[in-house]
Write a structure and sequence with these properties.
Length: 371
């Protein structure tokens, strides 16, 4: 099976060689690999049973509950915006798709990143950057540019950042796009969404600033440890931090101290990441092949690549893409963004333009050799 992309450690002159190899050699082989992998999944629709009169909006995150019997889903209040809505964006479903709980109305303007930590707390980021029309409605009513921690009763127990105030210092964000929490309580935030800060930030469990990698507004960069729209962030069992550097069509991997380990170009143009308990990586790509407007756009389009979900095993030496799930029907714009996986290996992915949830059922488990 063809596998592609480049994996390298940052050691002096090797950085330049690694980045060059990833940018120049990786995409050619990776496009070939898309047709060389297997797809043991079947796309299904209508799994979720919504309350009468309500539809699923843009899905911003999916996480299995530790009990293995429920899924938590974050959507944008039946639309692509929550500012002014009285709908609950955080919903808890059983595995049959029945809604069993919901909360969060009035807390968010443009909920974007979502994470369920090891203690059962829910984390949500406000992903609209200042100047983006998606952030403006929230800013007008005093919300946005924060990361919120909630318990499972819907009570806010911690806030990072200042509501409706954007910035790139130690106490402010500009459209934080994703959040992940380490077992020791350290908090990592990708900050921020397109047009915002191009950095990742680490805090202690009490919210004390520890470090940042990357810059602020206007710092978009293709260089190693630079970012262009860092859209999501996740962590594996070894404490390594994975950033969906979407604008640069790559994943950058860091250690717990913020030092760059690898640059991977073989996961397409990743918008959303999910790492399961077996350290299997799922990367949602809903933008490859689309002509993107606004500078810089030459590498933003990722032409020649297909939209879909790429799956790889982080326990293997190269973490190659072993399975590729192509977009299942007609292309109508932005596709899969955020996604999650239940304990049986079924994938739940939100499509942006269609504003729907797709459930990819694992119907040939024996083919999923990475599990």
């Amino acid at each position: 099976m063809l596998n592609a992309g480049r994996r390298g450690s940052v050691l002096g002159v090797a950085v330049a060689l690694i980045v060059l190899a990833g940018l120049l050699l990786g995409p050619v082989a990776d496009v070939q690999a898309q047709s060389s992998t297997t797809n043991p999944y079947r796309a299904t629709f209508g799994w979720e049973k919504m309350p009468e009169g309500r539809v699923m909006g843009t899905v911003s995150g999916v996480f299995p509950d530790p009990d293995g019997e429920h899924l938590w889903i974050l959507d944008r209040c039946g639309a692509n915006q929550c500012a002014g809505s009285d709908l609950d964006p955080i919903m808890k479903f059983d595995l049959e798709g029945n809604l069993v709980d919901s909360f969060g109305a009035g807390l968010f303007g443009f909920p974007h990143g979502f994470f369920l930590d090891h203690e059962g707390f829910l984390w949500v980021t406000e992903g609209g950057s200042h100047g983006d029309s998606r952030a403006t409605p929230g800013e007008r009513i005093g919300i946005g540019h924060q990361v919120l921690k909630l318990n499972q009763r819907g009570e806010v127990v911690m806030r990072l950042g200042e509501a409706a105030v954007w910035g790139d210092d130690e106490h402010h964000f500009n459209g934080p796009s994703g959040v992940v929490v380490a077992p020791n309580g350290d908090i990592w935030v990708s900050d921020g969404h397109r047009g915002g800060n191009n950095r990742i930030v680490k805090f202690s469990s009490d919210g004390t600033f520890l470090l940042a990698v990357g810059g602020g507004v206007g710092s978009e960069s293709k260089e190693a440890a630079g970012f262009s729209d860092p859209h999501d962030i996740k962590m594996d069992s070894q404490g390594r931090v994975y950033v969906a550097d979407r604008g640069n069509s790559r994943i950058q991997v860091f250690d717990s101290e913020g030092d760059l380990l690898y640059i991977w170009t073989h996961y397409g143009k990743p918008s959303g990441l999910f790492i399961d308990h077996n350290d299997i990586l799922y990367a949602g790509d809903g933008l490859s092949g689309m002509v993107r407007q606004g500078p810089p756009d030459n590498w933003r389009s990722n032409l020649g690549w297909d939209k879909g979900v790429r799956i790889g095993d982080l326990k293997t030496d190269q973490a190659w893409v072993t399975h590729f799930i192509p977009q299942h029907d007609e292309d109508v714009g932005a596709g899969i963004e955020f996604l999650g996986v239940d304990f049986d290996g079924n994938i739940y992915a939100g499509e942006v333009s269609r504003r729907r949830l797709v459930r990819y059922v694992l119907h040939r488990p024996s083919e999923l050799l990475v599990r």
